[in-house]
Amino acid sequence: MDDNDAHVVGPGEFLSGQSVFSRSGEYRLAHHDDGDVAVHRVADDVPVWRTGTVAPGGHSRFGLTDDGDLVVVDGSGNTLWSSGTGGRSMVEAVLRDAGWLGLRDEGGFFVWRTPVTPMPISWEGWERRGDGQTLRRGETLRYGSLTSPAGAFVFTVDDTGQAILRDADGEVVWSTLWTTPGCGLSLDDDGALTWRAADGSLRWGWLGRGDDPGVPLHGDEFRVTDAGVLVLQNVSGEVVWSSTAPVPVSVPAPDPEPPRFVRSDREPDERLRTSSTPLVRTDFSDLAGWVELLRRLAETPGPAGAAGVEAIDDPAFDGLAPEHLMSMLPDDEHAVVFVADAATFARPEQSELSVLVVSLSDDGDEDYSEDGLFFRAIPEAVSTIDLNLSLANCDWDDLAQQAEPDGVVRTSYE
């Protein structure tokens, strides 16, 4: 891949409600909820190219088919827009720093691309780079680093716009909390150390503090010492500002955030109202598999007090994404929703049928920490999961921890 390329999708890959930034951070390709796909100039959010598609019902995906066609498809798989390159061997779609989207073939050549966009809004100041050790007046630091004299520490402003200080082993000892693609650090001509957007506009003064927290301090050189201290000083050597040296401590890495579905802005649908916990069919490709699933649910002996699930078999919900389903459920009292999706019927053996189990917020509170978490479960485990969560006999983590390495809970009620 060329250094100017940002990977968007490869064969068989699709985006849904996601964005991809160019390597420079100056352009963003976005798949919008209404089905439109557009390349935006980040500095002013102006779309420089778009498909202009509108998906019925709002559900769509953007991706590259296995036969080389870049497409926007609706929830039923109907093509709303395509690049017209089907039948040709494509390796990937990429977003270039110049702001255009292109399809590259196996030979590395672009065989399709969007029109040339207006010149990017960029700042010539980013070309005035330092020597890699000291940032002086009139110089900038973006997508680069400053190294301490003996190489003990490296201060970097990476392609996400985050400033990071690492030791010689690559361990992060300090970083900014924000990420803003395209931004960087500038020691201005007047000596002010500032944080600037891709177009050079001032975001804020980097070192403001004390009585004037919004006013940047001024100096002649900015560097990092072998003690891991960031220093702004005058040419005379007088230190105007310095950070605190990092203290070597062993901090356990936080547990990774579990994947989750995030609710969309869909309105509730009365067809999804149920008195018992709903089981919603969103894939209609395998009638025999659906019948087998219902049979096994009916034949599974449930624990005392289990009301059972209520199946919703309506083609209107074919292809409905979980994040939309969560928002469309009109009842807030259910702890979970069970989903018979495409993965349910994708198993080679019917004995491996599994349903998607999605946790729902408490009384519709979207800040509920478990809202949208999920795992899969075999039909024989459904009644136990439903009852235990409905009665709060256990919490979500207790059940999720029973999932095997493939993400499926196979513990059934005896």
From TrEMBL:
Any matching Pfam family: DUF6924
Organism of provenance: Kineosporia succinea
Name of protein: Bulb-type lectin domain-containing protein
Bulb-type lectin domain: residues covered: 6-116
InterPro entries linked: Bulb-type_lectin_dom (IPR001480), Bulb-type_lectin_dom_sf (IPR036426), DUF6924 (IPR053832)
SMART domains from the UniProt entry: B_lectin (SM00108)
Ranges of biased composition (kind: Basic and acidic residues): 257-273
Sequence segments annotated as region (Disordered): 246-275
